[in-house]
Amino acid sequence: MKALTFSTFGNSDVLEYIEIPTPTLKQEEILIEMKAIGLNFADVYRRKGNYHLKGNPPFIAGYEGSGVIVDTNNNPDFKIGDRVAFADVPFANADFVSVPVSNVIPLPETISFETAATILLQGLTAHYLATDSHKTKIGETVLIHASAGGVGQFLTQISKLLGAKVIGLTSSKEKAEIALQNGADKVFLYSEDWKSQVLSFCPNGVDVVYDSIGSTLSDSFEVTKNRGQVVFFGMAGGDPDFVNPRMLMDTSKTLTGGDLWSYLTTKEERIKRAHQLFDWINSNQITIAAPTVFKLSEGKKAHDYLESRKSTGKIILIP
Question: In what order do the strands lie in the sheet with 59-60?
Answer without folding.
Answer: 15-19, 2-6, 59-60
